[in-house]
Amino acid sequence: MLNAGIQFINQVVPMPTMAEVAVASGEGAVGASAKELIDAMSDEEKSGLKGWYWYDWANQAYALTVMTVIVPALMANLYNKSTGTQGGAGFFALIYGLAMLVVAVTAPALGVIADRMPIKKKLLFWYTVVGIIFCAAMGAAPYFGSKGYLVLAFMFVIGSIGFSGGNTIYYAFMPYLAPKKAMDHVSSWGYAYGFLGGSIILLFHLVVLLATPWDANFQLAVIFSTSALWWWGFGALMFFKTPEPPVLDEIEYQGVWESTKFAYAEVWKTLKQIRVEFPVLFLFIIAYLLFYDGVNTINGMASAFGESVLRINPTMNIALLLTVNFVAVPMSIVFGKIANRSGTKFALMLALAIYCLVAVAAVGFAPLELEDEHKRYDFQYDYNEETDNYTLTTLYDRGVDGWVSADSSGDAEFRDAFGTWMSFEDAEQESAGGFKWVDGFGAIVVIGVATLGVGVAMIAIMRKGMGWIGLVLILLLSGAVMGGASLLSEDVVKEDKETYQLTSGEAAAMVAAFGNASDHRFSIHFEGGPEGIDGMGEVGERHPTVLDQGGYMDWWPETMRDNVWAPLGITVSLQWIILGFFVGCVMGAAGAQARSMFTMLIPKSRTTEFFGFFGFIGKAAAMLGPFLYAAAAGYFDDRMAIMSIVVVIITGSYLCARVDLEKGMKMADDYDAQFLKEE
Question: Could you tell me if 481 and 523 are in contact, meaning their C-beta atoms sit under 8 angstroms apart?
Answer without folding.
Answer: no
